[in-house]
Amino acid sequence: MASPKKKLQGLVAATVTPMTEHGEINFSVIGRYVDYLVEEQGVKNVFVNGTTGEGLSLSISERCRVAEEWVTKGRNKLDQIVIHVGALSLKESQELAQHAAEIGADGIAVIAPFFLKPWNKDVLVNFLKEVAAAAPALPFYYYHIPALTGVKIRAEELLDGIQDKIPSFQGLKFSDTDLLDFGQCVDQNRQRQFAFLFGVDEQLLSALVMGATGAVGSTYNYLGKKTKQMLEAFERKDFSSALNHQFCIQRFINFVVKLGFGVSQTKAIMTLVSGIPMGPPRLPLQKASREFTDNAEAKLKSLNFLSCTDLKDGDMEACS
């Protein structure tokens, strides 16, 4: 695994948490999951126990075990394993942070508490500071996802002076569509070597133009290889190719969003594409319908994201 001080960059898969049909965590397939990400998708960084991983639907002991399994199975295979340790309880968040440090994770991330909410920047920073202090040697990332937390404090405002309060602060996972806020995070912190990790997969190219240094997302579990082609085109300044790759990814995401797309559907797609049984989500989420899975499979094939043996000749939608 990477040196603990290394900054997270490039593509990061927001991992799902595999479960049995009875809603228990299926630890036995995480080793296969690691191999699939590395060998099939070329993705070597993971973000564990986040939104996609149903982290806040798991017990504290389950979150610890999931983190341990990813660190153990990812050793010498994955570059970076960042554990989301956010919780409504400061004490639980600190416990998870300390545990992440003990098991050898490469970083921790925290969302804003979202029931009793911080009402301004200073209150939020104080909460984050207390969590970071429980694992001072680990790089600390703020996970900005206002649509789910309801905490509307702008990331640009939060970043102002944050390293004075949280010395281990290394960047943020920005899961919002506000490119003005994201752009100003980058623009106003150019002297600091922060990681600016974008979290809206269908808008990643826009964020790269704005200065994103990496991306954390659920689609990189199964569209990692395709997204890497976009990153490579962007890096060689072939913006026309990069745009074609982004449009191709958007076609799929636009299609599944219209059907109803969330964690449950991500699990169904991962089961389909990887062949690893990811199982259903935990309540209150509902299992994806068979109809959704069939439609998603047809769309993936039409876009050449899956083997196309079932395709008719002359399908014009396939992405190069």
Automatic annotation (TrEMBL):
The protein's annotated pathway: Amino-sugar metabolism; N-acetylneuraminate degradation
Ranges in coiled-coil conformation: none
Subcellular location: Cytoplasm
Keyword Nucleotide-binding: no
Substrates-to-products reaction catalysed: aceneuramate = aldehydo-N-acetyl-D-mannosamine + pyruvate
SUPFAM superfamilies: Aldolase
Residues annotated as binding pyruvate: 52, 216
Any Pfam family matching the protein: DHDPS
Keyword Cytoplasm attached: yes
Enzyme class: lyase
Annotated active site: 143, 173
Alphabetical list of PANTHER family matching this protein: DIHYDRODIPICOLINATE SYNTHASE, N-ACETYLNEURAMINATE LYASE
Name of the molecule in the record: N-acetylneuraminate lyase
